[in-house]
Design goal:
This protein is mainly α. It has helices at 11-29, 36-42, 45-59, 63-85, 97-117, 120-141, 146-158, 164-181, 208-212, 223-246, and strands at residues 186-191, 194-199. Strand 1 (186-191) and strand 2 (194-199) form a beta hairpin.
Length: 247
C-alpha cells in the first residue's frame, strides 16, 4: 500500500503555528524589544488566525455558540491585553484581537444570510457593504489591526473556495492589505548591488504557505485542546505583563 507523503497542515497544526508566531511577536513587543527577527516571524500569526476564523465559521454547527465563546474570551483577554500593551487595567485606545474577529464573524454572518437568499445582486451589495462597514467599525472601535484586521478575515471568507482563482485573490488582497494599508516599517537590504526595501509587514504573506497546505483536516482535536487554544491568548499576555512589571 502506497504511503501518503503529501505535505499538509491541519487545523491543529495551524493553531499551534499561530500561537508560536504570536508569542514571538508579543515577546518582541513587551519584554525583549530590539529582536526584530521575532516580529518578522510574528507577522505570520494574524493571517493564520484570520483564516481559521473564516474556516471556523463555515464549519461550526452553532454560530451563536461560536460567537458567544469568542466574546467571553475577548472580555477575559481585555485586562491582560491592556496590562501588556498599555500598562494599565484600562486602555481604551486599543482592543484585543478577539474583538476584531467578532466584528468579522458578524459581517460573515450577514453575507451568509444574503447568500442563502439566492439573489446575486443582494449578495454583491452585501459584500460591498460589509467591506465598507467592517473598515469603518474596525477603525472606530480601535480593535487590533483595525480595519485591516477585519478585512483580512473577510478576504479568507470571500476567497475561501480552494480554487486557483481564490489563491490569486487571497494573495492580491493580502498584498494590498499588508504592503499598502499596513506597510511602512521595514529594512533596506543589499540585493545584487542594489538597496531594496524589505517591508516588515510583508512577511505576513508567508503565512499563505501553511494556509494553502491546509486540506480541511482537523488533526488532533479535543475539548481540552480547543480551550487551551482559547486560553493561551489571555494567559500568555498576563504572564508577559507580569514579567514586564518585574524585569
Amino acid at each position: 500500500m502506497e504511503e501518503n507523503t503529501r505535505l499538509e497542515t491541519t487545523s491543529a497544526s495551524l493553531h499551534i503555528m499561530g500561537m508560536i508566531f504570536m508569542l514571538l511577536d508579543h515577546l518582541w513587543g513587551t519584554i525583549v524589544p530590539g529582536n526584530d527577527w521575532m516580529t518578522c516571524i510574528g507577522r505570520l500569526a494574524f493571517p493564520i488566525f484570520a483564516f481559521m476564523i473564516a474556516e471556523g465559521y463555515m464549519r461550526t454547527s452553532n454560530v451563536k455558540k461560536y460567537a458567544k465563546r469568542m466574546f467571553i474570551f475577548a472580555l477575559i483577554t481585555e485586562i491582560p491585553f491592556n496590562l501588556a500593551f498599555g500598562g494599565n487595567l484600562l486602555y481604551p485606545f486599543h482592543q484585543n484581537v478577539l474583538f476584531t474577529f467578532l466584528i468579522a464573524i458578524g459581517l460573515i454572518h450577514l453575507n451568509e444570510k444574503a447568500r442563502k437568499n439566492g439573489k446575486v445582486l443582494l449578495r454583491i451589495l452585501t459584500a460591498i457593504g460589509t467591506v465598507i462597514l467592517g473598515s469603518l467599525i474596525g477603525l472606530i472601535t480601535m480593535v487590533d489591526y483595525h480595519h485591516a484586521g477585519v478585512l483580512t478575515v473577510l478576504v479568507f471568507y470571500f476567497f475561501g473556495q480552494g480554487k486557483w482563482w481564490s489563491y490569486i485573490g487571497q494573495f492580491i488582497c493580502l498584498w494590498y492589505i499588508n504592503m499598502e494599508m499596513l506597510g511602512g516599517f521595514g529594512y533596506e537590504v543589499e540585493l545584487f548591488g542594489q538597496l531594496v526595501f524589505l517591508s516588515r509587514q510583508g512577511f505576513a504573506l508567508l503565512a499563505l504557505i501553511p494556509i494553502w497546505l491546509y486540506r480541511g483536516e482537523r488533526g488532533h482535536h479535543s475539548k481540552a485542546f480547543q480551550y487551551f487554544c482559547y486560553a493561551f491568548y489571555p494567559a500568555h499576555l498576563l504572564i508577559l505583563a507580569i514579567l514586564g512589571m518585574i524585569l
